[in-house]
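Same chain as my last thread, 96 residues:
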Amino acid sequence: MTRETPFAFELRRGVFEIEVDGKSVGSIESHGTFEASVEPGHHTLRMRAGRYSSRVHAFDAADGGAVSFNCHGAMVWPTFVASIFKPELAISLRPA
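reply #2:
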């Protein structure tokens, strides 16, 4: 997991909690990285910052393989304002 802002600054800042299969496994700060081991199989990933979150992403982990994601907080005002009403828009989470 890498947390980088591609071209601007984040409007939704602070530490993001990392959840795998609904359980907290760590956190990541701006410009940070995070690594964790998971069992082979199907899993879900979500980022959370208080009541704000990313959408849930499903992924499959292979034995000895690696899965990479990038995340960042809302960077444009319309998304930031929309996240007040729809909290899962506050954090962008995408496969790398």
